[in-house]
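Onboarding guide, step 5: your first structure request.
Type a short instruction followed by the sequence, for example:

Predict the 3D structure of this protein.
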Amino acid sequence: MNSYKNVFFVQGTLLVILGLFMLLPIIAETVYQEKSSIFINSSAVTIFIGILLILSNLDKNPKLNLQGAFLLSSISWLAIAIFGSLPFLFSDLNFSISEAFFESMSGITTTGSTVIDDLDSAPKGILIWRAILQWLGGIGIIVMAITVLPLLNVGGMEMFRIESSDTTEKILPKTQEIALIIFLIYLTLTILCIVSYCLAGMNLFDGITHAMTTIATGGFSNYNDSIGFFQNSNIEIVSIVFIILGSIPFISYIKFINGKKKIFFQDVQIRGLIYLIIFSVLIMFIYLMLSNENTFLNNLRQSMFNVLSILSGTGYVTTDFSAWGTFPLVFFLFLMFIGGCAGSTTCGIKIFRVQILGLFILNQFKKLAYPRGIFPINYNNEKISDPFMMSVITFIFVYFFIFFIISILLSLTGLEFMSAISGAATAISNVGPGLGSNIGPNGNFKEISDTAKWILSFGMILGRLELFAILILFVPAFWKN
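The system replies with structure tokens like these:
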């Protein structure tokens, strides 16, 4: 019982923090002379509920057991999405409950899908609130990926455990310690990104909001045309640089600070990310050179930006790539599934799981060729055990199984084939824009049914929390043991 009290105590603390962040858009409203009380009202409600949870669940000896850790992981994101939707509900944009929740869930999970059909004229307070949600979601998933998920043995995430002796009893103090370090790194990168965007040609407001969503690899923009609105190659270069910085495991930044200066060159996952980026950009660049009459530099620029944006799950676009033909759609769908590095703000299956699956397949071929041979699998100088390998393979299988289930459910709501498939992929991979006529790069999710919005929202939180952190809650035996 004490563990569950601590779950709600931490949840109350998170709601108070969320409520305080709700006051920041008031600055933008004041500067741009937008008179409203939506953020004051939303903040008051959120902080009030948060304080009630804190006062009713005080504990002198905070601890979490395994069930409490899973429950905290899931309920935190759900509650923040619910309370984060209040400013959308109170705004003049006439959001329904399903639309407000969808927009908030898309923000906090750094997905980047939107139901706002005219971003260019949306209130500045709402625009910066969307950016804040993604920024908070980015740092939140980094902290969870380093401190909580490794202890839950979710899909191979135990590889990124900071101390092998850690147990669930140490989650709260370890999280506080690591969160502070990550916050400072995350804030520093955000400030550098703001400065870079402003030097490249953005105004201060656009620089702040886009920096938040770039570092979080979230992709919310202030304009319908996303980064393509600016038509500025320097801004695109800044985006590319900081998307890559956000896609690198933040545990590598911590190791670098602690003296491991070559960690960015030694980490197998980071090298895999770089190789995949180079290979994917080259493939798309060759395709564009053969299929259109744009210049060499323009094709290279479009290939690099859009490949990296989709692979990292950021979802920024500079052009309507759905008009490029069939191959880019299939290729981008493939990149959506892979995603970036574990322990970063990116989403998808993650590079390390794809690498380990490749090692497993190669190992099976070796065993077929040499039946009596013994071939241990090593990754990042660590031996891969059979249970670990099974965990990774199971994750990938469940990932695609849930993708097909969501696709079927979306098709039942009336979405056409490409929209249903890409909608499921963009939700579970937390990418943002889908493919097809309605939810493509230059579209939005406004016109899909409320049922489809709820299905996609559930897919977003499933993908963000590595599937099993949510699914295990529905297994009765888990709560008995």
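Each response can be followed by summary notes, for example: The two ends are 14 Å apart (CA to CA).
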